Amino acid sequence: MFIPATAHLNRPVLLIMDGHNAHVNLNIINLMKQHNIVCLILPPHCTHSLQPIDVVLFNNVKIDWCDIVKNYFKSGHKSIRNADIPRLMKRLFIEKQSFSTTRIVSSFSRSGELHIINT
């Protein structure tokens, strides 16, 4: 999916991956070279400092989503239909404010300093 989505770019593309061993092998490395992809592999066990959105934001989203689904089933529903998903997602975004500016800023501030270099 990544290669077709970036094939039109006429410059190197940075792909950031976690340090899980299964993601990278010789075939993948050769494929990345062929398609002008530079791979940055994050060291394992560094989520707290390199993935700030995972630290606070997505953890809270998971908690909010579980709460929404639990209440949905408590109200008598037996399953979640495709037609129900937009209404449930609205609760996640609007009522729970799962992706609020406050939560996003908190994600970065809790993980410490993160410096983005734009060259």
Describe it for me?
This protein has helices at residues 2-6, 26-34, 47-50, 52-74, 85-95, 101-110, and strands at 13-17, 37-41. It has two domains: 2-41, no CATH class; 47-110, no CATH class. It is mainly alpha-helical and 119 residues long. The chain has a two-stranded parallel sheet. The protein contains six helices and two strands; from the N terminus they run H-E-H-E-H-H-H-H. The model has no long low-confidence stretch (mean pLDDT 81). Helix 4 (52-74) packs across helix 5 (85-95). Residues 2-82 form the DDE-1 domain. This is DDE-1 domain-containing protein. One of its GO terms (molecular function) is nucleic acid binding. It comes from Rotaria magnacalcarata. InterPro entries: DDE_SF_endonuclease_dom.
Could you give a short description of this structure?
With 119 residues, the chain is mainly alpha-helical. Helices cover 52% and strands 8% of the residues. The chain has two domains: 2-41, no CATH class; 47-110, no CATH class.
The oligomeric status of these chains comes to single chain
Give the structural class.
mainly alpha
What is the average of the pLDDT values?
81
How many helices does DSSP assign?
A: 6
Strand content: 5-15%
Radius of gyration based on Cα positions: 19 Å
Strand order of the largest sheet: 1-2
Given as residue ranges, the uncertain stretches (5+ residues, pLDDT < 50) are none
**CA-to-CA gap between the ends?**
26 Å
Q: What is the number of domains?
A: 2
Report the sheet with the most strands, covering strand number, pairing sense and barrel closure: 2 strands, parallel
Question: What sort of overall outline do the alpha carbons produce when their principal axes are compared?
Answer: extended
